[in-house]
Prior knowledge:
The complex is a heterodimer. By secondary structure, chain A is an alpha/beta fold. Chain A contains 14 helices and 9 strands. In chain A, strand 6 (164-168), helix 6 (176-191) and strand 7 (195-199) form a beta-alpha-beta unit. Chain A is globular and about 70 Å long. Chain B is 57% helix and 14% strand. In chain B, helix 10 (345-371) runs parallel beside helix 14. The mean pLDDT of chain B is 86. Chain B is of the alpha+beta class. The radius of gyration of chain B is 28 Å and the shape is globular.
Amino acid sequence: MSDNKKPIISAVGLSKVFRDFWSRPKAKAVNDIDFEVYEGEVVGLLGPNGSGKSTTVKMILGLLYPTAGTLSVFGQSPRAVETKRQVGYLPEESYLYKYLTAIETLDFFGALFNLSAEERSSRSNQLLEMVGLSHARRRRVGEFSKGMARRIGLAQAMINDPSLLILDEPTSGLDPLGCKEVKDLILMLKKRGKTVLITSHLLSDVEDICDRVIILYGGKIRATGTLHELLTVTDANRITTPALAPAVTDKLISILRENLSGDEFTFDHPRKSLEQFFLEVINQAKSESIETAGVVGGGKIAEYLTENQTPESILNDLTRNTDEAAAAKPAAAREPVENIDEENKAIERLTAEAPTVEKPAETQEKPAETAAKAEEDLSKANEKLKDLLS
Amino acid sequence: MTAFWAIVKLTFKNAVRSHIFQLLLILLLLCVIMIPYTISGDGTARGYIQISLLYSLSAVAFVLSLSSIWLGCFLMTRDVESYQLHMVISKPISRLTIWLGKWLGIILINLILLLIASSTVYSIVLWRFYNQPFSDIEKSQIENEVMVGRRVFYPETPDIDEWARKLLQAKIMEATKGGAQVDTSPVGQEKMLKDLKREVLGRLAEVPPGGDRVWAYKSLPVGFDRPLYFRYRAYVSKVSSESQRLTRGWWGVRIAEPETEEKKPDSVFEREKLDQKKYKYSFFAMTPYPEQIMSGTFLEKDLPPKVIDPNGEVVIRFENHDPMGAALCFQKADGPKLLIKYTGFTQNYFRAVLVIFMQLVILAGLACAAASVLSMPTAVFVVISYLMFGSCATFMAGSSFFGGAADYVGYYVGKVILVAVIPMQEFEVTHLVSNGELIEWVFIGKLFLTYFVLRALPLFLIGMWLYWRREMGLVIRK
């Protein structure tokens, strides 16, 4: 990634020492770290409490000044006003003005970007719809629940269609549906070539959306790299199949036992993630028109963030692969293997070498084509968006 | 500018929606409506209107001054301490714009409150003037002495240093002639001169029993055709509010009258010379006999326009006829002042409101400057201390007698403090408007230049600079 793309954030020898009233060093929050975040990347900044994540983010935003080293954002000082024109920021907690209504909040932050009144109004309405707060547009932010405050916070971070989005615990306080929407949104932004820096304690969220992570501890970078590099266990294999008949299972286990000792392999049923199960239940309830008094999930991406594409198509694009996979798995699970011959054939296919790769190869071709087409469409959309926003 | 106005609007909305604005408005309206009902005045119609005007407007100025300081400190620090400012400064807006936007927002809040409160005071005063059962004489007195803008003329003061030096020389000569010893050392001479200065000032202020005193006023408009007023306050024995009583005095005024009616020469220059020669100056008593005077209170007398001589000069004389043989004292600040009508009440009143507004602008700016880098209570403490320093420094630097080293230290410390500190009492104009004294544009301009431009603006710039360089991320959230 670093070969082709320019760094959006670049830190070299970055340090931050907090001092007491008499200027004596009190704590070294960030200790001589180097890192870069490239255009179009979704990077997770991870670490336990006190590891230096928030200090690093505050330095990127110009709220704290480095004690040593250099830090540039879009090639400029983080304190430069022009730098901030391309940055969107969602803080860890709601630091919004409690006496403003949702629409006034978005209008205020839009005005800070010198957007015209019409543009502010249009974007605010689209964003409120996107985060599912259209019904609460006239309610004061101080009356919002944590989840609603998070949503309006996310909306304000997007008001300027930022090139760099800094999200501090973006899914904190959101229900699983909201988490999924936020993650979908981040993936959509990534597709549009936006750069996203996320700090989160919810590692599953980071895993779902980040290309790369930087793990901090004690103010130093302890690990950095793509999730594939860091998480792939190269000295083990995993095979997932439809549910097998007992005889086939026994056969398979015996094959494994011939080659491996008993404690070197495990054999069980795969589990859905709780998030996946929850979403299925909610989607089922939605299809049955069960009403809720809480946030009405928006999910409709603001038009100015998508331009040429319809918001629905983007969400469909984003969720197609996961939805199809999710839909396919329960389908397989729902269909019991009735015929032992069929099951045996399946085991044979499983154990044979060549056919196992043929079918997935066929199914992978079409998504590759559609992905390329979608990429082309999105690049056109981006070009148009740049023209409109410049 | 969109971003700047967004900050102004936000500051304004904050005050209105957190009910600060409403609370202040209710407090102000209570002050201006209740005060006229709780005062009794000096028993005269003029005194009643005068005091209700003075107290109401002073209350408005006081409440709004405190609110400017409090709002300035509160609105600047709350954003920082609640981290709301993190959201704002991570957007493309300079900190200077944020500072100025907040300052203007606070100014606008105070301006609206000031306009509402001062208009209410104005309306109440007019309503009382037209609806109270005042006699025509009382109404005329109020119109001429309170609800008016009169230009003030102070009497010419002699050179006190020169007068004291002359007295010293005379004393030395007298002592030398009498063969007495005189301390000619510089320290001895300085001490004698100091004592003589005190004596001169005493002589200027005091009218001995049976003695008289003359005050001369210059640069009055020649040909003025409306009555003049002179305002004075006399104290019996010493300048103190205690032991004041009825006394007697006889006021006289010098009038220039042409000696003869001869044919005037054609030449303008010759005629002027002749005019000067042909006037005879004589004092006329204002009353046929010494009048009764209540000491310790301000009194006014009207004079006919003919007291202004062709040179634009007015000379007034006072004879002390105290029945108990006590001396009468006139403070330099009390005049007697000579007043001539220059403008109406409305214009003078709103000039006073303008001065109060300027005061609020400065106080709001000082509060914002202090809160740029300090926490809320510390910022309030610093601003209040600053204002108290200004008040004390004026007193210290105003000292004219030095008894010892401490007096000198106090004097010079006061002078140094006054270079940087704004004595806010200079903006106190409510007594002028209630006395019907004109608030001159020159005075307003002087306040603006001396205190706003030269003293306040540099402090505001320091505040902005501190705000600009402050690491907002270091603040611990409250």
